[in-house]
Amino acid sequence: MNYETILVETKGNVGVITLNRPKALNALNSQLFKEMNGVLDGWENDQNIRCVVITGSDKAFAAGADIKEMEPLQFPGTYVDDFITPWDRMSRFRKPLVAAVAGYALGGGCEVAMMCDIILAADNAQFGQPEIKLGVIPGAGGTQRLTRIIGKAKTMELVLTGRMMGAEEAERSGLVARIVPLTDLKTEALKVAENIAALSLPAVMAAKECVQRAYETTLAEGIRGERRVFQSLFGTHDQKEGMNAFVSKRPPSFKHR
Ligand code: CAA
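That is the input. Now the predicted structure with acetoacetyl-coenzyme A docked in place:
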């Protein structure tokens, strides 16, 4: 299938989406989300896809929502048409998403990276929420997710001034799992995704769901939920296989059931 705004490939059990609007530094427009959401819908139900990498170019993961598309918008239209809501699809994707970020991850670009589960950053990555400079605020979760991830002090500074932070500061702040040299970024991201895709899919999905719950509930509720999910995994083939393989000193052969 041909897409206008993204490139789509599968490598074994890993799906790769490359944001591909090079002339606009991968600015995120409605068409891009229509295409990306369609791909995610397909992969959600595809047993063969067990992890997804989202990446951009060496210069830009994404320089934000498309300002040219947004400029003429008016309030009643943004409300009635529910502008930005289609972006949420990513955050409801149940399999792991790895963001491989090089260059600019600004505004909506930073927000899309934060909807992923693991962010690997190239050494040239720059994160920021510069919406304030355009007379608006982050609109795809930036004020909420960034605060939960890096805390109020830095979020306030970034959101209120529009300052960008480099890869090292982002790693220090807990936004980024790891920094890798730009030339290795895509290989490393694929390696991480392939490692995840080789593990038991129900366990991986359950782990993601439980970590996500930590952002949305109390500690006691989260721990109770985690325990139930942990207990439920004893109903899977893969628990028997994983533990028997360990005891028998052989590699496991997961069925993802
Ligand atoms: N939307 C639309 N087009 C964009 C864009 C964006 N977010 N970012 C860059 N572009 C376009 C530029 O208009 C330019 O196109 P033309 O050649 O047709 O003029 C092209 O990409 C290259 O950009 P620059 O010439 O500006 O490149 P640069 O290297 O000089 O600067 C930059 C790079 C600092 C990232 C600068 O492009 C920039 O500041 N971009 C905007 C960043 C921004 O404000 N993002 C937030 C958007 S609002 C948002 O995201 C809302 C939300 O929360 C959902």
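The chain has a mean pLDDT of 98.
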